[in-house]
């Protein structure tokens, strides 16, 4: 049977089957990147080449659908955008590879392991393998959001930002004390994040919840693209810092290399 388009052909914008509105909506989503995580209407219009009225309609539609958040004059992507990524990960078995790696970490360490990504000023859990140990008063699961400033995964991800982006984060973030160990001085926090950038891993020791100790490293694909951060979360009374460094850091680093080998 003859069709209007061959299987290996792509539509052009002049084709009658080309949906301009869909293309424009995706263009607005793609306008946000690590250099432009939050933008005004004017900035979105400039980056997409749209007039303000058109950009406004697409931003408000994406906001209504839950893909964009609005904070006063600024817009930013919402976690729901991750659902678009889940389809890609599943189709390419990336999520399966990462989930298996996390489960292997739990099997080998006896501790919970997660993959998180940066979303605004928070880290959001996108994959997780839980141990039998209860770590926090809240239940950690896929979709859980925690403050990036006070978590090992968050600091690993913040360390991947440019200097300007990191300074922007520090300028706007409100640091809340959760435990006596919580760092609430922005200058000290910046030094910790820069240290993470140099050493390639982060430890958060009872800063978010008393007794919660975690270690994280960045996870990249075979092309060097940041996928997120993977961690091990444990109880400070059960696992000391020496064990974390001696046993768990090499384990996490090895699993990160495995992800890089199998995800391209």
Q: How would you describe what is shown here?
A:
The chain is of the alpha+beta class and about 260 residues long. About 40% of the residues lie in helices and about 20% in strands. It has 9 helices and 9 strands. It has helices at about 20-30, 40-50, 50-65, 80-90, 95-110, 150-160, 165-170, 185-200, 240-260, and strands spanning about 40, 70, 75, 110-120, 120-130, 145, 200-205, 210-220, 225-235. Helix 5 packs antiparallel against helix 9. The protein starts with 19 loop residues before the first helix and ends with a helix.
Summarize the helices and strands and which ones pair or pack:
Blueprint: H1 20-30, E1 38-40, H2 41-48, H3 52-65, E2 68-71, E3 74-77, H4 82-91, H5 94-109, E4 112-119, E5 122-129, E6 145-147, H6 152-158, H7 163-172, H8 186-199, E7 202-205, E8 212-220, E9 226-235, H9 241-262
Antiparallel strand pairs: 1-3, 2-3, 4-5, 4-9, 5-6, 7-8, 8-9
Largest sheet: 6 strands, antiparallel
How many strands? 9
Biggest sheet: strands side by side, in what order? 6-5-4-9-8-7
Strand content: 15-25%
pLDDT < 50 runs, ≥5 residues: 1-8
What is the name of the CATH class of the largest domain?
A: Alpha Beta
According to CATH, what is the topology of the largest domain? Beta-Lactamase
Radius of gyration, whole Å:
21 Å
Q: Ends: how far apart? A: 36 Å
Topology pattern, helix = H, strand = E: HEHHEEHHEEEHHHEEEH
How does CATH name the architecture of the largest domain?
2-Layer Sandwich
Q: What's the tally of helices? A: 9
Total separate domains: 2
Overall pLDDT confidence: 87
The computed structural class is alpha+beta
Question: Based on CA inertia axes, which overall geometry fits?
Answer: globular
Helix content: 40-55%
